Amino acid sequence: MKTKGVAFVLGVMSLGVAGLAQAETISAAGGTAIYPVLSKWAETYQQKTGTMVNYQAIGSGGGIAQIKAKTVDFANSDMPLKPEYLNKDQLVQFPAVIIGITPVVNVPGIKPGELTFNGTILTGIYLGKIKKWNDAAIADLNKGVKLPDMNITVVHRSDGSGTTFNFTNYLAKVSPEWRQRVGDNTAVSWPVGVGGKGNAGVAAYVQRIPGAIGYVEYAYAKENHMAYGKMINAAGKVVAPDLATFQAAAANADFTKVEDFYMILTNQPGAQSWPISAATYILMRQDGDKTVNAGVLKFARWFLTAPQAQAEARSLDYVPLPKTTVTQIEAYWKRNLGQ
Amino acid sequence: MDDTRDAELEMRMVAVPSPAVPSRISPARSRRLHAMDRRFRWLTGGLAFLVLLLLVGVALSLFLRGWEAFHHFGFAFFWSDAWDPVTENFGALVPIYGTLVSSLIALLIAVPISFGIALFISELAPEWLRQPIGSAIELLAGIPSIIFGMWGLFVFAPVLGSAEPWLNDHLGALPGIGALFRGPPMGIGMLTAGIILAIMVIPFISAIMRDVFLVVPAMLKESAYGLGATTWEVARHVVLPYTRTAVVGGVFLGLGRALGETMAVTFVIGNAHDLHISLLDAGNSIAAALANEFAEAFSPMYKSALMALGFILFIITFVVLVLAKLMLWRLGQGQGKVGL
Amino acid sequence: MNTAKNARYLRRRFWNVFNLGMAMATTLFGLFWLVWILWTTLSYGATALNMELFTGDTPAPGSIGGLRNAFVGSLLMIGVAVMIGTPVGILAGTYLAEFAQGSRLAAVIRFFNDILLSAPSIVIGLFIYAVVVVPMGSFSGLAGALSLAILLLPVVLRTTDEMLGMVPGTMREAALALGAPHWKMIVQVSYRAARSGILTGVLLAVARISGETAPLLFTALSNQFFSTNLDKPIANVPVVIFQFAMSPYPEWQHLAWAGALIAAMAVLVLSLVSRFLIKDRSPR
After folding, report:
1. Which residue among A62, A68, A210 sits closest to B296, beta carbon to beta carbon?
2. Among residues A39, A32, A174, which one has the least CA distance to residue A101?
3. Region A101-257: CATH code
4. How far apart are CA A100 and CA A96, in angstroms?
5. What SS3 class is residue B116?
6. What proportions of chain A, in percent to the nearest 5, are helix, strand and coil?
7. Interface test with B, best of C29, C37, C237 (most B CBs within 10 A)
8. Is B86 helix (H, G, I), strand (E, B) or coil?
C-alpha cells in the first residue's frame, strides 16, 4: 500500500510536470446543449493530440459575454448572432453540429415517446393557462393515454440559454400571444415555473418533481432515459425526436443564402422535420491571437471532418454537418480569419 | 482577561528607565533592535488596519459597480418585481423578498429549537454529556453548506414533496394564513429553503445561547432554587431575563448567517423570479440569484444589477451583524469568545 | 387550602417536566438532522469511493473518471490561501493582542473583523471578481485563492488575538525585564507559548474554507482537465460537486457524493485535530 502511495504521488507529479511542459490549453465557454458531445470530443481530442479543450458550460448567454470580453478562446451559442452584432464586436461564427430540443415530462405511468404535444399545448402550459395533466387539450391529442389529475410544474432555464432561445422562438412562431407577451431570447420573463441551471439543471428538476415538464436538448433526455414527448410539426405530422427528424429539419438549411451562417431552424417545413431543431454555433474573435485561433480551428476542423468525431456525435443523436456545409465553413475561415 | 495586566505591562515598559547594569549590547545594536520594534509595530498595525480596508473595499467596489443599475432604475429598483435580462428591466424585490422570507422561516424554526438545546445542555444534561452533545451540535455547523444543498435536493425535497399535499389539504384550508400553504407540492421552494436554513443556523444560535446561559452567576440561580423554583422556572424567570440581550444578539448572528447562505438555498429554492405568497412555491434569494446568474450575465446592465443586489445583501447582513455584535457585547461576550 | 396548594404545585411540576422534556426533544431533534445528513453523505458517498476517484480526472458525461483534478486544484488554492492569509492574520492579530490591547482602535478592528468573518462569502467572490478577474482578463485559480484568503484571514486573526491574549503576563514581563526588545519578546515568547492555539486557528480556518463554494463560482470557475496552472480556471472540489450534483447523470451524481464525503471527512478531521491540540490549553 505504501509503495502504491509513493507511486501515485510520483505519478501525479510527473503528470503535472508533463502537463505543464507540453499541453496546450484552449479555454472555452458556452451553452449546455452542446456540452455532452463537446466534452466527449475534448476527451478524444486530448487523447489524440494532448491539447486540452477546457469548456465551461455556463449557458449560451454566458459564452457570448465571455467571448466579447475576450476571456475565452472560443465560445458556443445555440442562438446565432446577427451579422451586424458580429461585425460590431469583431466576431465570427460558424455552425458545429445540429441539435434537437424536446419536451420532457415526469408523469407517473407515462413512458418515453408516449405523449404527443403541439405548439398550442406547449404555449398553453408555459403561459400557465393549462394547469393540469388531464386538461382537455392534452387529452384530445393523446387519446388512449392515461393522464392523471395532477398539477403541471413548469421547469425552464434560470440562466441565459440558446436552448431557451430556440424553444421560445418556436413558441413565438406558433403563438402570437407568446410572441407578444414573452418573446424569444436567451433569457425571458417566464410567466410561470421553476428555473434550472443549464440543460442539466432542467433535466434534474424534471426528474425530481412529479408532474414536471421541461425542455432539454435531446441528448440529455436520451442519456437519462427521460420521458420525452413527440410533436406535431408544421406539416401536421407526428414526429419523434431522433437523428432522422433533426436531419430532415436541417436539410432545409441552405447556408449559402445567408451571411455568417445566420439561420433559425425552428418550425421547418417537411413531413419528417422536428419542429424544435437548431444549429449550434462556435464564436471566435477576428482580432484574436493568431496562434490561439489556429489552435481552435485545428480542433474545429477535426470535429467537423474526422470520422471518429462524427460517429461520437451521432451516437449522442447530434447531427454532423454535411460535407457541403463544411466546405463553406472552411472557405469562411479563409475569408474572415485568414486561415 | 489579561487586559488589565497587559495594560500595566505597557505602562511599566514606558516607565522603566534604562537598566543601571552596563549593557553588553553596543548602543548601535540596541538602537537597531528597538528600531525593529517600531517597524514591527507598523507592520502588524498596518495589516490589522487592512481588515477595515477590506470591508470598506468590498462595500465600495460593489456599490460602484452597482451604481449603473441604481442610477438607471432609481428607488424603483427596490420594489420592482421585474427581471427581464432581454429588455434589461431588473428589480430587486423578488430576491430581497426571498432572502428575507427564507431567513425568517429559518429563525421561526431555529430559535425555539436552539433555546431548547441550549437549555438542555446548560441546565439539564449531566456533566459528562455536555461536551459530546455540544461537540455534536457544533459538528452540524462545520458541515460544508454544499452538502446541505445536496442532501436537501436529493433526500429532503422528495420527503417534503410527499408531505406537502397534506399541508395543502390541512393548513391550506385555514382562512388567512392558508394562502401560505396552498401551492404545488414540488418538494422544492421557499419552505424547503427555510427549513434547511434553520438546520444550518441552529448550531450557531444554540452555541451562543449555551455560552451565555453558562455564565449566569450561580448565586442568582441558587437563590431562585433556594426559594423553591423548578428548573424551568429558573430558566424562564432568572436565566432568560439576565441573558436576554445576548440571546437576541445570538439570534441576530444566526440571521446574518441565514441571509448570506448561498449553496444550500440555490439547490432548493427553485430559482423563479416570481413573487408568490405560497411558501410551497419557488422563489429566489439574492445569494442564489448571484450564484446562478453572475457568471453568465451577458450585458453590463445585467452585471450591474447583480452587483447592486450584492451590495444590498452586504448592507443588510452588515446591519444585522453590527446589531448582533452590539447586543452580544452588552454581556461582555463581544470580545470574540462566543462561537464562530 | 391544601388542595389549592397542591393544584398549583402540580401545575408547576407539570410545566417543569413538560418544558424540560421539550428541551430534550429539541436536542434529539437537532441530533436527528445531524445523523440523517451524515448518514446520507456516508451511504451515498461510500458507494463511489474507489481508487479511480483519486487517479482519474473529471469525466465527460457517460465516461468514467474521478476527482483527481478537483482535489489537486482545491489543495493548491487552499495552500496559496493559507500562505497569503495566515501571515497577515497572525501579524494583524499580534498587533491587537500585543500593541493595542485595551485601546479603542483595537476594539473597532476586532468588531469589524468579526463582521468580515460572518460576511456572506458570495459577496467576497463578487469583490474579487471586480478587482482581480476583470483586470486579469480571465478567471483563475489565483483569484479563487485570494477570495479564500480573505475568508481565512478573520478566523486566523481572531484566534491569534485570543491565544496571544492568554499568554501569561509574567512570561512577557520576564522576557522584557531581561532587556529583550518588544518584537523579540513577541516572537520568541508569546508566539511560542501560543503556538498550538494559533495552529488550531489556522486549522479551523482551513476547515472553513475547504467547503466554500460560492466565492469560487466566479473566480476560479472550473476545468475539465488536470491542471496546476493558477492563472487559468482550475478544477476544485466544491464547484465540481455543484456542477455534478445538479446534473441528471447518475455517474456524475455518485462522484458528487463521493466528493462531498471526502470534504466532510476533511472538515471533521481538521476539527478533531484542532480540538485535540487545544485540549491541554487553559479552560476557556
Report:
1. A62
2. A32
3. 3.40.190.10
4. 13
5. helix
6. 45, 20, 35
7. C37
8. coil
**CATH code for A14-99+278-337?**
3.40.190.10
Measured on CA atoms in the order C175, C177, C181, C182, is the torsion positive or negative? positive
Q: Partners of B90 in the beta sheet? A: B83
- Cell digits for C20? 424540560
What the block records as the C-alpha cell of B22 is 552596563
Q: Which three cell numbers, joined as nine digits, stand for A269?
A: 417545413
pLDDT per residue of chain C (284 residues) written in tens, 0 to 9? 555 578 888 889 898 889 888 999 999 998 999 999 999 999 998 888 888 888 888 887 777 888 988 999 999 999 999 999 999 999 999 888 888 877 888 888 989 998 999 899 999 999 999 999 888 877 888 999 999 999 999 999 999 988 888 888 888 888 888 888 888 888 888 888 888 888 888 998 998 898 889 999 888 877 777 778 888 888 899 999 988 888 878 888 899 999 999 999 998 888 888 878 776 554 44
- Grid coordinates belonging to C181: 526588545
Dihedral, B104, B105, B109, B110 alpha carbons, nearest 10: -50
Within 8 A of C26 by CB-CB distance, chain B residues are 112-117, 120
Query: C-alpha distances in angstroms, B85 versus A162, A167, A196, B213, B299?
Result: 14, 17, 16, 50, 8
Asked if residues A285 and A82 have their Cβ atoms less than 8 Å apart, the reply is no
Helix (H) or strand (E) holding C283: none
Q: Domain-by-domain residue ranges, chain A?
A: 14-99+278-337, 101-257
Q: Do domains A14-99+278-337 and A101-257 have the same CATH topology?
A: yes
pLDDT in tens, B305-339: 999 999 999 999 999 999 888 887 776 543 334 44
3-state secondary structure of B199: helix
A149 within 8 A of A213, measured Cβ to Cβ: no
**Which residues of A are less than 8 Å from B86 in CB distance?**
183, 185-189
Provide, as residue numbers in chain C, all residues whose Cβ is less than 8 Å from the Cβ of B325: 111, 114-115
Taking the alpha carbons at both ends of chain C, their separation in whole angstroms is: 50
Residues 6+ apart with CB under 8 A from C155: B340, C89, C117, C201, C204, C205, C208
* Closest Cβ opposite residue B116 in set C26, C33, C263: C26
Rounded Cα–Cα distance for residues B176 and A146 (Å): 36
